[in-house]
């Protein structure tokens, strides 16, 4: 009788509940015309049971294996989500505690998901904060050092027996030096920390160059023939007029300061890479190749022939100003002096 199928007609949707139906397989077929009226339940014989389907195997397949899979899934979630989130929390807490040397770690920044993007963003923020704090500390140290010199001269002048007129002239000169020093330092710190977004416009480079050369000739007493303009006539750049004028003015003053007698300054350029590549050359003593990047650091004075007046802030301010306009500034060695390169966006491509 165990190999004979049992047919049962059952009303409603309940299943057979006999002890035999619990251990033997069965199938239920609802009436096609009236499924709610009942169904035909066919209880299959013993031979349709899977071989070796014991209680132990049922416990393994229905309890142990799902439990192992659940543990593996939990471990994977912990490794991929919970532990990285904990590392990000520690990194954020370290930044909050002014530990700017903390990093997210390679296991986070190499990820290609949202957690990896968050880790890289935190590292970038920490790097910028380290740069800002480092620059501010450097500016404070250098500013305090630079202010000692005019203050010392004022003290010596006040203790000496010079005339009142000479003392007044000395005080005016030293105060002017300190005012210029403080103003340049504050401007450099403002450009680095605030990173303002100046309004940009199309600028005719020849008109700007002529205006700056007129001022430079008046200050230095140079003739117009010593300023050579070798840029195509259609050169129009996209930038901030005042910022670009200040950067070029600083470069011109630096070139004039270190040019020999009867030296000349040349501005050349060409269109390339969606912008204008300009370079300013002088006939001065030049800079060693190892110092080409160091001259853009604040308060940098070289020990060679290019050391002169000034505080070493002009090139730093010029680079910061150009970067805010989408440009770049760097230097290399020319045949007879220093060559300073500028890359500015093209007005036609803006």
Write the SSE topology.
Blueprint: E1 6-10, H1 19-23, E2 26-30, E3 39-43, H2 55-96, H3 106-109, H4 114-159, H5 164-194, E4 201-204, H6 205-220, E5 227-230, E6 236-239, H7 241-257, E7 265-272, E8 275-281, H8 314-324, E9 328-333, E10 338-345
Parallel strand pairs: 5-7
Antiparallel strand pairs: 1-3, 2-3, 4-6, 7-8, 8-10, 9-10
Helix pairs in contact: 2-4, 4-5, 5-8, 6-7, 7-8
Give a verbal description of the structure.
By secondary structure, this protein is α+β, with helices and mostly antiparallel strands. It has helices spanning 19-23, 55-96, 106-109, 114-159, 164-194, 205-220, 241-257, 314-324, and strands at residues 6-10, 26-30, 39-43, 201-204, 227-230, 236-239, 265-272, 275-281, 328-333, 338-345. It has a 5-stranded mixed beta sheet. The protein has a 3-stranded antiparallel beta sheet with strand order 1-3-2, with no helix packed on it. Strand 2 (26-30) and strand 3 (39-43) form a beta hairpin. The longest helix is centred in the middle third of the chain and has 46 residues, at 114-159. It is elongated, with a radius of gyration of 40 Å.
Give the strand line-up of the largest sheet: 5-7-8-10-9
Gyration radius (Cα, Å) is 40 Å
CA distance, first residue to last residue:
91 Å
Annotation, overall tally of beta strands: 10
Low-confidence stretches: 1-5, 11-22, 303-308
Which shape, going by the Cα principal axes? Answer: elongated
Order of helices and strands: EHEEHHHHEHEEHEEHEE
Mean pLDDT: 81
What percent of residues adopt helix (DSSP H or I)? Answer: 40-55%
Please indicate the percent range of residues in DSSP E strands (runs of 2 or more). 15-25%
Q: How many DSSP helices?
A: 8
Q: What structural class do the secondary elements suggest?
A: alpha+beta
Largest sheet, strands/sense/barrel: 5 strands, mixed
